[in-house]
Design goal:
483 residues; mainly alpha; three-stranded antiparallel β-sheet; 48% helix; binds zinc ion; SET_dom; [histone H3]-lysine(4) N-trimethyltransferase
Protein backbone atom coordinates (compact mmCIF):
# COMPACT_ATOMS: atom_id res chain seq x y z
CA UNK A 1 0.00 0.00 0.00
CA UNK A 2 1.03 3.57 -0.29
CA UNK A 3 2.43 4.76 2.98
CA UNK A 4 1.79 8.50 2.60
CA UNK A 5 3.01 8.46 -0.97
CA UNK A 6 6.44 7.15 -0.08
CA UNK A 7 7.35 4.67 -2.72
CA UNK A 8 8.98 1.55 -1.44
CA UNK A 9 10.40 -1.26 -3.46
CA UNK A 10 10.89 -4.85 -2.47
CA UNK A 11 14.64 -5.21 -2.43
CA UNK A 12 16.30 -8.31 -3.71
CA UNK A 13 14.27 -9.19 -6.75
CA UNK A 14 14.83 -5.94 -8.56
CA UNK A 15 18.47 -6.69 -9.08
CA UNK A 16 17.95 -9.57 -11.42
CA UNK A 17 17.98 -8.27 -14.92
CA UNK A 18 15.69 -10.65 -16.73
CA UNK A 19 12.94 -12.28 -14.85
CA UNK A 20 11.49 -15.44 -16.37
CA UNK A 21 7.91 -14.51 -16.97
CA UNK A 22 6.00 -17.39 -15.45
CA UNK A 23 8.06 -17.72 -12.33
CA UNK A 24 6.81 -16.15 -9.20
CA UNK A 25 9.04 -13.62 -7.64
CA UNK A 26 8.11 -13.89 -4.11
CA UNK A 27 5.71 -15.97 -2.15
CA UNK A 28 4.59 -15.67 1.39
CA UNK A 29 2.94 -18.17 3.61
CA UNK A 30 -0.37 -17.01 4.80
CA UNK A 31 0.21 -14.72 7.72
CA UNK A 32 -3.26 -14.38 9.17
CA UNK A 33 -6.60 -14.90 7.65
CA UNK A 34 -10.25 -15.44 8.50
CA UNK A 35 -13.33 -16.50 6.64
CA UNK A 36 -16.37 -14.42 5.82
CA UNK A 37 -19.14 -14.91 8.27
CA UNK A 38 -21.92 -16.17 6.02
CA UNK A 39 -19.66 -18.79 4.47
CA UNK A 40 -18.29 -20.36 7.61
CA UNK A 41 -20.07 -23.68 7.09
CA UNK A 42 -19.41 -23.87 3.32
CA UNK A 43 -15.70 -23.17 3.09
CA UNK A 44 -12.76 -24.77 4.90
CA UNK A 45 -11.38 -22.46 7.59
CA UNK A 46 -7.81 -23.40 6.76
CA UNK A 47 -7.47 -23.56 2.99
CA UNK A 48 -10.57 -21.56 1.94
CA UNK A 49 -11.72 -24.24 -0.46
CA UNK A 50 -15.36 -24.85 -0.99
CA UNK A 51 -16.40 -28.40 -0.22
CA UNK A 52 -19.62 -30.37 -0.19
CA UNK A 53 -18.76 -32.04 3.07
CA UNK A 54 -16.82 -30.36 5.81
CA UNK A 55 -15.90 -31.54 9.28
CA UNK A 56 -16.97 -29.33 12.12
CA UNK A 57 -14.82 -28.43 15.10
CA UNK A 58 -16.33 -30.42 17.96
CA UNK A 59 -15.51 -27.70 20.49
CA UNK A 60 -16.85 -24.44 19.08
CA UNK A 61 -19.08 -25.99 16.39
CA UNK A 62 -18.10 -22.93 14.34
CA UNK A 63 -14.94 -23.79 12.45
CA UNK A 64 -15.18 -26.24 9.53
CA UNK A 65 -12.42 -28.14 7.77
CA UNK A 66 -11.86 -30.32 4.70
CA UNK A 67 -10.11 -33.01 6.70
CA UNK A 68 -7.80 -33.70 9.62
CA UNK A 69 -4.79 -32.16 7.90
CA UNK A 70 -6.58 -28.84 7.55
CA UNK A 71 -7.85 -29.07 11.11
CA UNK A 72 -4.39 -29.81 12.46
CA UNK A 73 -2.87 -26.94 10.48
CA UNK A 74 -5.45 -24.58 11.92
CA UNK A 75 -5.08 -25.51 15.55
CA UNK A 76 -2.34 -23.13 16.59
CA UNK A 77 -4.36 -20.12 15.42
CA UNK A 78 -7.73 -21.57 16.28
CA UNK A 79 -7.06 -22.78 19.83
CA UNK A 80 -7.62 -19.52 21.70
CA UNK A 81 -10.30 -18.41 19.24
CA UNK A 82 -12.08 -21.73 19.74
CA UNK A 83 -12.50 -21.30 23.47
CA UNK A 84 -13.47 -17.62 23.09
CA UNK A 85 -16.21 -18.55 20.59
CA UNK A 86 -17.33 -21.41 22.80
CA UNK A 87 -17.63 -19.13 25.78
CA UNK A 88 -19.55 -16.46 23.92
CA UNK A 89 -21.78 -18.85 22.00
CA UNK A 90 -21.40 -16.88 18.76
CA UNK A 91 -18.48 -15.81 16.61
CA UNK A 92 -17.93 -12.16 15.71
CA UNK A 93 -17.44 -11.09 12.07
CA UNK A 94 -14.29 -11.85 10.10
CA UNK A 95 -12.56 -8.51 10.70
CA UNK A 96 -12.88 -8.88 14.47
CA UNK A 97 -11.71 -12.48 14.36
CA UNK A 98 -8.77 -11.44 12.21
CA UNK A 99 -7.85 -8.67 14.66
CA UNK A 100 -8.05 -11.19 17.51
CA UNK A 101 -5.85 -13.69 15.68
CA UNK A 102 -3.26 -11.00 15.01
CA UNK A 103 -3.23 -9.94 18.66
CA UNK A 104 -3.00 -13.52 19.90
CA UNK A 105 -0.06 -14.01 17.63
CA UNK A 106 1.58 -10.87 18.99
CA UNK A 107 0.91 -12.23 22.49
CA UNK A 108 2.60 -15.53 21.54
CA UNK A 109 5.50 -14.27 19.45
CA UNK A 110 5.82 -10.57 20.18
CA UNK A 111 5.19 -7.82 17.65
CA UNK A 112 8.67 -7.77 16.13
CA UNK A 113 9.68 -8.85 12.67
CA UNK A 114 9.68 -12.56 12.06
CA UNK A 115 11.92 -14.18 9.49
CA UNK A 116 11.08 -13.20 5.91
CA UNK A 117 8.83 -10.39 7.03
CA UNK A 118 9.96 -7.01 5.70
CA UNK A 119 7.58 -4.86 7.65
CA UNK A 120 5.88 -5.26 11.00
CA UNK A 121 2.16 -4.86 11.47
CA UNK A 122 2.87 -1.92 13.79
CA UNK A 123 4.32 0.14 10.97
CA UNK A 124 1.50 -0.44 8.48
CA UNK A 125 -0.81 2.46 7.67
CA UNK A 126 -4.20 2.45 9.35
CA UNK A 127 -5.61 5.64 7.74
CA UNK A 128 -7.84 6.12 10.77
CA UNK A 129 -7.21 9.87 10.50
CA UNK A 130 -8.81 9.85 7.04
CA UNK A 131 -11.98 8.14 8.19
CA UNK A 132 -15.26 9.91 7.60
CA UNK A 133 -18.09 9.95 10.14
CA UNK A 134 -19.59 6.68 8.86
CA UNK A 135 -16.25 4.88 9.01
CA UNK A 136 -15.52 6.21 12.48
CA UNK A 137 -18.87 4.91 13.65
CA UNK A 138 -18.10 1.49 12.19
CA UNK A 139 -14.71 1.48 13.86
CA UNK A 140 -16.31 2.22 17.23
CA UNK A 141 -18.76 -0.62 16.71
CA UNK A 142 -15.97 -2.99 15.73
CA UNK A 143 -14.02 -1.95 18.81
CA UNK A 144 -17.00 -2.73 20.98
CA UNK A 145 -17.54 -6.19 19.53
CA UNK A 146 -13.83 -6.83 19.76
CA UNK A 147 -13.74 -6.03 23.46
CA UNK A 148 -16.75 -8.26 24.01
CA UNK A 149 -14.98 -11.10 22.26
CA UNK A 150 -11.49 -10.66 23.73
CA UNK A 151 -11.09 -12.93 26.77
CA UNK A 152 -9.94 -11.37 30.07
CA UNK A 153 -7.22 -14.02 30.51
CA UNK A 154 -5.49 -13.00 27.27
CA UNK A 155 -2.97 -10.17 27.23
CA UNK A 156 -4.74 -6.81 27.33
CA UNK A 157 -3.93 -4.21 24.66
CA UNK A 158 -4.68 -0.47 24.69
CA UNK A 159 -7.66 0.88 22.78
CA UNK A 160 -5.42 2.84 20.45
CA UNK A 161 -3.48 -0.24 19.45
CA UNK A 162 -6.63 -2.26 18.83
CA UNK A 163 -7.96 0.61 16.69
CA UNK A 164 -4.68 0.57 14.77
CA UNK A 165 -5.08 -3.15 14.03
CA UNK A 166 -8.70 -2.71 12.97
CA UNK A 167 -7.71 0.25 10.76
CA UNK A 168 -4.92 -1.79 9.16
CA UNK A 169 -7.39 -4.58 8.40
CA UNK A 170 -9.80 -2.05 6.98
CA UNK A 171 -7.39 -0.70 4.39
CA UNK A 172 -4.83 -3.49 3.99
CA UNK A 173 -6.99 -6.59 4.39
CA UNK A 174 -6.43 -8.72 1.32
CA UNK A 175 -9.44 -10.38 -0.30
CA UNK A 176 -9.16 -14.17 -0.46
CA UNK A 177 -11.18 -16.27 -2.85
CA UNK A 178 -12.21 -19.91 -3.01
CA UNK A 179 -10.33 -22.41 -5.18
CA UNK A 180 -12.32 -21.50 -8.28
CA UNK A 181 -11.75 -17.81 -7.89
CA UNK A 182 -15.46 -17.13 -8.15
CA UNK A 183 -16.20 -15.73 -4.79
CA UNK A 184 -14.43 -13.66 -2.20
CA UNK A 185 -14.57 -15.80 0.90
CA UNK A 186 -12.19 -14.31 3.41
CA UNK A 187 -9.74 -11.65 4.41
CA UNK A 188 -6.05 -11.85 5.26
CA UNK A 189 -3.22 -9.56 6.29
CA UNK A 190 0.07 -10.02 4.48
CA UNK A 191 2.43 -7.27 5.64
CA UNK A 192 5.00 -7.70 2.85
CA UNK A 193 2.30 -7.34 0.24
CA UNK A 194 1.31 -4.00 1.72
CA UNK A 195 4.65 -2.61 0.58
CA UNK A 196 3.76 -3.02 -3.08
CA UNK A 197 2.26 0.12 -4.54
CA UNK A 198 -0.58 0.46 -6.97
CA UNK A 199 -0.41 1.10 -10.69
CA UNK A 200 -3.43 0.83 -12.99
CA UNK A 201 -1.12 -0.89 -15.52
CA UNK A 202 1.02 -2.95 -13.13
CA UNK A 203 4.02 -5.19 -13.75
CA UNK A 204 3.00 -7.74 -11.12
CA UNK A 205 -0.13 -9.42 -9.88
CA UNK A 206 -1.08 -11.03 -6.59
CA UNK A 207 -2.82 -14.33 -6.35
CA UNK A 208 -3.97 -16.42 -3.44
CA UNK A 209 -3.10 -20.07 -3.97
CA UNK A 210 -5.29 -22.30 -1.83
CA UNK A 211 -2.64 -25.00 -2.01
CA UNK A 212 -3.06 -28.72 -2.44
CA UNK A 213 -1.99 -30.69 0.58
CA UNK A 214 -3.64 -33.89 -0.65
CA UNK A 215 -0.89 -34.47 -3.16
CA UNK A 216 1.88 -34.54 -0.57
CA UNK A 217 4.22 -36.77 -2.47
CA UNK A 218 3.57 -35.56 -5.98
CA UNK A 219 4.90 -32.60 -7.89
CA UNK A 220 1.50 -30.98 -7.47
CA UNK A 221 1.95 -30.52 -3.77
CA UNK A 222 1.66 -26.87 -2.90
CA UNK A 223 1.30 -25.04 0.30
CA UNK A 224 -1.33 -22.41 0.78
CA UNK A 225 0.30 -19.08 0.09
CA UNK A 226 0.00 -15.66 -1.38
CA UNK A 227 2.06 -15.05 -4.51
CA UNK A 228 3.36 -11.89 -6.08
CA UNK A 229 3.80 -12.81 -9.72
CA UNK A 230 5.61 -10.99 -12.51
CA UNK A 231 3.60 -10.07 -15.62
CA UNK A 232 6.37 -8.86 -17.88
CA UNK A 233 10.06 -8.16 -17.92
CA UNK A 234 11.13 -5.84 -15.15
CA UNK A 235 14.31 -3.84 -15.46
CA UNK A 236 16.78 -3.17 -12.72
CA UNK A 237 15.54 -0.59 -10.27
CA UNK A 238 12.02 -0.56 -11.66
CA UNK A 239 9.38 -0.51 -8.98
CA UNK A 240 7.14 -3.53 -8.53
CA UNK A 241 3.47 -2.65 -8.73
CA UNK A 242 0.09 -4.36 -8.58
CA UNK A 243 -3.37 -3.02 -9.36
CA UNK A 244 -5.68 -2.70 -6.38
CA UNK A 245 -8.76 -2.33 -8.59
CA UNK A 246 -10.18 -3.52 -11.89
CA UNK A 247 -8.81 -1.61 -14.88
CA UNK A 248 -12.13 -1.37 -16.75
CA UNK A 249 -13.10 2.13 -15.69
CA UNK A 250 -12.09 5.44 -17.21
CA UNK A 251 -9.14 7.06 -15.44
CA UNK A 252 -11.28 9.68 -13.71
CA UNK A 253 -13.46 6.96 -12.13
CA UNK A 254 -10.49 4.80 -11.18
CA UNK A 255 -8.85 7.76 -9.48
CA UNK A 256 -12.02 8.46 -7.55
CA UNK A 257 -12.35 4.84 -6.47
CA UNK A 258 -8.73 4.69 -5.32
CA UNK A 259 -9.06 7.92 -3.39
CA UNK A 260 -12.21 6.72 -1.68
CA UNK A 261 -11.06 3.21 -0.86
CA UNK A 262 -7.33 3.61 -0.38
CA UNK A 263 -6.87 7.32 0.30
CA UNK A 264 -4.37 8.25 -2.39
CA UNK A 265 -4.29 10.06 -5.73
CA UNK A 266 -3.26 7.77 -8.54
CA UNK A 267 -0.52 9.33 -10.63
CA UNK A 268 0.22 6.30 -12.76
CA UNK A 269 0.94 6.85 -16.44
CA UNK A 270 -2.43 5.44 -17.53
CA UNK A 271 -4.31 7.82 -15.26
CA UNK A 272 -2.19 10.84 -16.08
CA UNK A 273 -2.47 10.40 -19.82
CA UNK A 274 -5.93 8.89 -19.75
CA UNK A 275 -4.62 5.96 -21.78
CA UNK A 276 -7.45 3.82 -23.22
CA UNK A 277 -10.14 6.21 -21.95
CA UNK A 278 -11.13 6.86 -25.56
CA UNK A 279 -11.54 3.13 -26.22
CA UNK A 280 -13.58 2.65 -23.06
CA UNK A 281 -15.97 5.37 -24.20
CA UNK A 282 -15.82 4.48 -27.89
CA UNK A 283 -18.80 5.21 -30.11
CA UNK A 284 -20.07 3.22 -33.03
CA UNK A 285 -18.04 3.89 -36.15
CA UNK A 286 -19.89 4.56 -39.34
CA UNK A 287 -21.11 7.27 -41.60
CA UNK A 288 -23.24 9.01 -39.07
CA UNK A 289 -21.79 9.95 -35.72
CA UNK A 290 -24.41 9.74 -32.99
CA UNK A 291 -25.14 13.11 -31.41
CA UNK A 292 -23.87 14.03 -27.91
CA UNK A 293 -27.47 14.02 -26.75
CA UNK A 294 -28.10 10.44 -27.87
CA UNK A 295 -24.84 9.20 -26.34
CA UNK A 296 -25.68 10.77 -23.01
CA UNK A 297 -29.12 9.20 -23.08
CA UNK A 298 -27.79 5.72 -23.83
CA UNK A 299 -25.17 5.91 -21.08
CA UNK A 300 -27.76 7.10 -18.59
CA UNK A 301 -30.05 4.27 -19.65
CA UNK A 302 -27.18 1.79 -19.25
CA UNK A 303 -26.44 3.01 -15.73
CA UNK A 304 -30.08 2.67 -14.73
CA UNK A 305 -30.26 -0.79 -16.27
CA UNK A 306 -27.19 -1.87 -14.30
CA UNK A 307 -28.92 -0.92 -11.05
CA UNK A 308 -32.02 -2.93 -11.97
CA UNK A 309 -29.87 -5.83 -13.13
CA UNK A 310 -27.96 -5.90 -9.84
CA UNK A 311 -31.22 -6.03 -7.96
CA UNK A 312 -32.71 -8.79 -10.15
CA UNK A 313 -29.48 -10.74 -9.97
CA UNK A 314 -29.27 -10.66 -6.20
CA UNK A 315 -32.93 -11.69 -6.06
CA UNK A 316 -32.04 -14.60 -8.33
CA UNK A 317 -34.60 -13.57 -10.97
CA UNK A 318 -32.39 -14.48 -13.91
CA UNK A 319 -35.01 -14.26 -16.65
CA UNK A 320 -35.56 -10.66 -15.65
CA UNK A 321 -31.80 -10.06 -15.86
CA UNK A 322 -31.80 -11.44 -19.40
CA UNK A 323 -34.76 -9.29 -20.41
CA UNK A 324 -33.21 -6.10 -19.00
CA UNK A 325 -29.85 -6.78 -20.66
CA UNK A 326 -31.35 -7.56 -24.06
CA UNK A 327 -33.37 -4.35 -23.93
CA UNK A 328 -30.28 -2.39 -23.01
CA UNK A 329 -28.24 -3.98 -25.81
CA UNK A 330 -30.76 -2.88 -28.44
CA UNK A 331 -30.36 0.68 -27.20
CA UNK A 332 -26.56 0.46 -26.99
CA UNK A 333 -25.68 -1.32 -30.19
CA UNK A 334 -26.42 1.45 -32.72
CA UNK A 335 -24.55 4.00 -30.57
CA UNK A 336 -21.67 2.48 -28.59
CA UNK A 337 -18.40 1.09 -29.97
CA UNK A 338 -17.27 -2.47 -29.36
CA UNK A 339 -14.82 -1.53 -26.60
CA UNK A 340 -17.24 0.72 -24.76
CA UNK A 341 -17.29 -0.35 -21.10
CA UNK A 342 -21.05 0.21 -20.71
CA UNK A 343 -21.62 -2.26 -23.52
CA UNK A 344 -19.04 -4.71 -22.16
CA UNK A 345 -20.62 -4.72 -18.70
CA UNK A 346 -23.98 -5.72 -20.15
CA UNK A 347 -22.37 -8.36 -22.38
CA UNK A 348 -20.52 -9.83 -19.41
CA UNK A 349 -23.63 -10.21 -17.27
CA UNK A 350 -25.80 -11.40 -20.13
CA UNK A 351 -23.39 -14.11 -21.25
CA UNK A 352 -22.82 -15.28 -17.69
CA UNK A 353 -26.51 -15.53 -16.87
CA UNK A 354 -27.42 -17.15 -20.19
CA UNK A 355 -24.74 -19.78 -19.60
CA UNK A 356 -26.16 -20.44 -16.18
CA UNK A 357 -29.58 -20.88 -17.80
CA UNK A 358 -27.88 -23.27 -20.25
CA UNK A 359 -28.73 -21.12 -23.26
CA UNK A 360 -25.23 -21.65 -24.58
CA UNK A 361 -25.76 -20.66 -28.20
CA UNK A 362 -26.90 -17.18 -27.43
CA UNK A 363 -24.42 -16.89 -24.55
CA UNK A 364 -21.46 -17.80 -26.73
CA UNK A 365 -22.10 -14.95 -29.18
CA UNK A 366 -22.18 -12.38 -26.40
CA UNK A 367 -19.17 -13.84 -24.64
CA UNK A 368 -17.20 -13.62 -27.91
CA UNK A 369 -18.09 -9.94 -28.25
CA UNK A 370 -17.10 -9.43 -24.62
CA UNK A 371 -13.65 -11.04 -24.84
CA UNK A 372 -12.92 -9.28 -28.14
CA UNK A 373 -13.50 -6.01 -26.32
CA UNK A 374 -11.51 -7.08 -23.27
CA UNK A 375 -8.55 -8.09 -25.43
CA UNK A 376 -8.28 -4.50 -26.68
CA UNK A 377 -8.50 -2.97 -23.21
CA UNK A 378 -6.79 -5.17 -20.65
CA UNK A 379 -3.09 -5.73 -20.15
CA UNK A 380 -2.37 -8.91 -22.19
CA UNK A 381 -1.54 -10.76 -18.97
CA UNK A 382 -4.45 -9.71 -16.83
CA UNK A 383 -6.09 -12.23 -14.49
CA UNK A 384 -9.63 -10.96 -15.21
CA UNK A 385 -8.99 -11.26 -18.93
CA UNK A 386 -7.77 -14.84 -18.42
CA UNK A 387 -10.82 -15.75 -16.36
CA UNK A 388 -13.17 -14.16 -18.91
CA UNK A 389 -11.52 -16.10 -21.74
CA UNK A 390 -11.88 -19.28 -19.72
CA UNK A 391 -15.61 -18.68 -19.14
CA UNK A 392 -16.14 -17.79 -22.79
CA UNK A 393 -14.22 -20.89 -23.87
CA UNK A 394 -16.36 -23.16 -21.69
CA UNK A 395 -19.53 -21.50 -23.03
CA UNK A 396 -18.43 -22.07 -26.63
CA UNK A 397 -17.53 -25.63 -25.83
CA UNK A 398 -20.97 -26.24 -24.34
CA UNK A 399 -22.53 -24.64 -27.38
CA UNK A 400 -20.74 -27.20 -29.56
CA UNK A 401 -18.41 -24.57 -31.02
CA UNK A 402 -15.39 -26.71 -30.33
CA UNK A 403 -12.84 -24.86 -32.46
CA UNK A 404 -13.55 -21.42 -31.04
CA UNK A 405 -13.94 -22.87 -27.55
CA UNK A 406 -10.64 -24.67 -27.62
CA UNK A 407 -8.89 -21.57 -28.98
CA UNK A 408 -10.19 -19.49 -26.09
CA UNK A 409 -9.23 -22.10 -23.49
CA UNK A 410 -5.69 -22.10 -24.89
CA UNK A 411 -5.47 -18.32 -24.71
CA UNK A 412 -6.84 -18.39 -21.18
CA UNK A 413 -4.32 -21.04 -20.20
CA UNK A 414 -1.41 -18.97 -21.50
CA UNK A 415 -2.56 -16.08 -19.32
CA UNK A 416 -3.30 -18.09 -16.18
CA UNK A 417 0.10 -19.77 -16.32
CA UNK A 418 1.49 -16.30 -15.70
CA UNK A 419 -1.15 -14.75 -13.43
CA UNK A 420 -2.07 -17.81 -11.35
CA UNK A 421 0.87 -20.14 -11.95
CA UNK A 422 0.81 -23.80 -12.98
CA UNK A 423 -0.01 -25.17 -9.51
CA UNK A 424 -3.08 -23.04 -8.85
CA UNK A 425 -6.32 -25.08 -8.66
CA UNK A 426 -7.94 -22.92 -11.36
CA UNK A 427 -5.02 -23.39 -13.74
CA UNK A 428 -5.17 -27.13 -13.16
CA UNK A 429 -8.92 -27.24 -13.87
CA UNK A 430 -8.33 -25.20 -16.98
CA UNK A 431 -5.53 -27.46 -18.12
CA UNK A 432 -7.84 -30.49 -17.83
CA UNK A 433 -10.50 -28.71 -19.90
CA UNK A 434 -7.96 -27.65 -22.46
CA UNK A 435 -6.71 -31.21 -22.92
CA UNK A 436 -10.24 -32.58 -23.13
CA UNK A 437 -11.33 -29.98 -25.68
CA UNK A 438 -8.20 -30.66 -27.70
CA UNK A 439 -9.11 -34.33 -27.92
CA UNK A 440 -12.61 -33.45 -29.01
CA UNK A 441 -11.28 -30.98 -31.53
CA UNK A 442 -9.08 -33.65 -33.07
CA UNK A 443 -12.04 -35.97 -33.31
CA UNK A 444 -14.04 -33.16 -34.86
CA UNK A 445 -11.38 -32.50 -37.47
CA UNK A 446 -11.10 -36.17 -38.39
CA UNK A 447 -14.77 -36.87 -38.66
CA UNK A 448 -17.26 -34.09 -38.15
CA UNK A 449 -20.28 -36.33 -38.53
CA UNK A 450 -19.03 -38.81 -35.94
CA UNK A 451 -18.18 -35.99 -33.58
CA UNK A 452 -21.72 -34.62 -33.57
CA UNK A 453 -23.18 -38.09 -33.15
CA UNK A 454 -21.00 -38.83 -30.16
CA UNK A 455 -21.66 -35.44 -28.69
CA UNK A 456 -25.39 -35.94 -28.95
CA UNK A 457 -25.16 -39.35 -27.36
CA UNK A 458 -23.05 -37.96 -24.55
CA UNK A 459 -25.48 -35.11 -23.94
CA UNK A 460 -28.40 -37.53 -23.76
CA UNK A 461 -26.69 -39.68 -21.20
CA UNK A 462 -25.36 -37.05 -18.97
CA UNK A 463 -26.53 -33.62 -18.16
CA UNK A 464 -24.09 -30.90 -19.03
CA UNK A 465 -22.13 -29.90 -16.00
CA UNK A 466 -23.96 -27.02 -14.37
CA UNK A 467 -22.39 -23.64 -14.70
CA UNK A 468 -21.74 -21.91 -11.41
CA UNK A 469 -24.49 -19.62 -10.26
CA UNK A 470 -23.68 -16.02 -11.17
CA UNK A 471 -22.33 -14.19 -8.17
CA UNK A 472 -23.53 -10.77 -7.40
CA UNK A 473 -20.33 -9.09 -6.48
CA UNK A 474 -19.35 -5.72 -7.73
CA UNK A 475 -15.78 -6.29 -8.86
CA UNK A 476 -13.90 -6.70 -5.63
CA UNK A 477 -10.76 -4.70 -5.11
CA UNK A 478 -7.53 -6.43 -4.33
CA UNK A 479 -7.70 -5.33 -0.76
CA UNK A 480 -10.93 -5.86 1.00
CA UNK A 481 -12.13 -2.43 1.83
CA UNK A 482 -15.64 -1.66 2.91
CA UNK A 483 -17.32 0.30 0.12
ZN1 LIG B 1 -9.08 -27.32 3.88
ZN1 LIG C 1 -13.22 -24.77 17.43
ZN1 LIG D 1 -3.90 4.93 -12.22
Amino acid sequence: MVPNGDHMTLGCCNHRKYMPVAKHLYSDHVIMETLQWILTHLVCHTCFKRHEKLHRCGQCKFAHYCDRTCQKDAWMNHKTECSAIKKRGVAPNENIRLAARILWRIEREGGGLTEGCLVSIDSLQNHVEHFGEEEKKELRMDLESFLEFWPPESKQFGMQYISHILGVINCNGFTLSDQRGLQAVGVGIFPNLCLVNHDCWPNCTVIFNNGNHEAVRSMFHTQMRIELRVLSKISVGEELTVSYIDFLNVSEDRKQQLKKQYYFDCTCEHCQKGIKDDLMLALKEGNEKPSQEVVKEVIQFSKETMKKVDKARSDGVYHEVVKLCRECLTRQEPVLGETNIYLLRILSILSEVLSYLQLFNEASGYSKQMVDGYLKLYHPKNAQLGMALMRAGVTHWHAGLIEAGHGMLCKAYAILLVTHGPTHPITKDLEAMRVQSEMELRMFQQNEFMYYQMREAALKNQKIQMMPEPTNEPSVGLFQKKQ
